[in-house]
Amino acid sequence: xxxxxxxxxxxxxxxxxxxxxxxxxxxxxxVGKAVDLRDRVRSxxxxxxxxxxxMVDRADDIEIAVTDTETQALLLEANLIKxxxxxxxxxxxxxxxxxxVQVTDHDAPRIEVTRDPDESATVFGPYTSKRQVETVVKALxxxxxxxxxxxxxxxxxxxxxxxxxxxxxxxxCTREIDLASYREDVTAxxxxxxxxxxxxxxxxRREMEAAAxxxxxxxxxxxxxRLETVDAFHGEGGEAVQSVGDERAVDVLxxxxxxxxxxxxxxxxxxGKLVDRDRHTLEAPGSAGATGEDEGVASVLAAFIVQYYxxxxxxxxxxxxxxxxDEEVASWLxxxxxxxxxxxxGREAKLVDLALKNARRNVGRRDECSMxxxxxxxxxxxxxEGFDVSHAQGTAAVxxxxxxVDGSAEKAYYRRKKLTDQNDDYDNMRALLxxxxxxxxxxxxxxPDPDLLLIDGGEGQLEAARDALADVGWDVPAVxxxxxxxxxxxxxxxxxxxxxxxxxxxxxxxxxxAHRFAVxxxxxxxxxxxxxxDDVDGVGPETRKRLLGRFGSVENVREASLEDLRSVEGIxxxxxxxxxxxx
Length: 583
Prior knowledge:
The protein is of the alpha+beta class.
């Protein structure tokens, strides 16, 4: 696309906030945000660097999306960068996108919070706080009864599910409500999401006042809190929400750049104490260039700030090694009431120095991952997921799924799974990997695909895991690490690496963390089984054993109908009702 083509396309664009994408065929090359789409896109007729000039030359189209506010443009840009990983953007690896709300286009539409909306759905957002969005969506469902279940659960039902009993859904699946009336409720929900706050706030306020009048003060307080969230929902980003000065939580960022990789280390201080630290990798195209194209620390900071603080509460203050260079990001942070400082001396400057040291340490971790990739003949091993199972002679069976990125644990990506109780490690591992693979293939897991799967165990566990991957069709390399001899087992051969090999240490950390997480969850489930069921009148050890044998877990017992409970030997109508009321 030449300069005249850019100017012609820009001339047809609105003077509104939004996001633009330079595309080459089906490939997104670059994503940008703008307060004024027409002016910003027109500026690419005279690219600010040789790298951006090459991007414009490659592009054959420019797509835009208009947003209501500058903040929404900022967040949508972060979502699109995460989704498309465009070559010419600074890209935060392995992080989450901002939440949106989608209303699907089914005959009986479903409402849900998502980071990857369906192409055919009506989408609202993006938003900064997942917690706030989930509170609002739950209030909408309680008020209007819109379903949130999957298509699989919706199809072929002959009676309503538990959501109907709880007042979260009017059960269009079994026509407890006719579809015409249901769609009217969906329209009301969409009107709220488009900005008509009163559609939800008014019934909540009436319900709160009724609860207070009936002296149901705890319920009234809960409704008040929910109402405050609803009232604030459409004001998100519109005004300062907190005053600077009472800085309980402070994030400190340090940046190290090497080639096209950049590492940002984050330290979290709360009430003056250092409470957390982590590191994150970005790809910064041109960051090492000697031709004036240098992205530099400032650009990396700007990209990290907006892409990282998705689903995370912003701190009261940010301490940076230097100023970032993005006016829209600066405006967003100011609107949110976030203090941004570049300290020159004192305790804050020492914290920034510490963050810089942490960022530089990550270079060694990347070498560790590279050594592992070379040893296993993989393209990369930067993202590893570890798996283990735990049970007590077949009871309280669970599986763990931990994630390491660039050699560091990423606990936000940890997952755990209750398994059917059975004293068979191979079948348990097969079930765990089938669950993970199915979610990945069906697009129901919001994590990126890993470069490598690590199985805690030997040849039997690895074979079971690979069988599950093949059955589902998820093509990800898998190896196992046996505890006794610390042998690395692959489908083709077994490695016995030196005990001081850095890449072996990496696999050991992943394996040990998967084991720890599995045991911790097993203990939780085991304690839950003992306390919840044993406290139910009429349920002794033998009855509990029959219940778990029939349903597999306490969660499944909780979801079972009265009829299903009564079908278990020794469970009468009174005991079944007691179980339902206690669980």
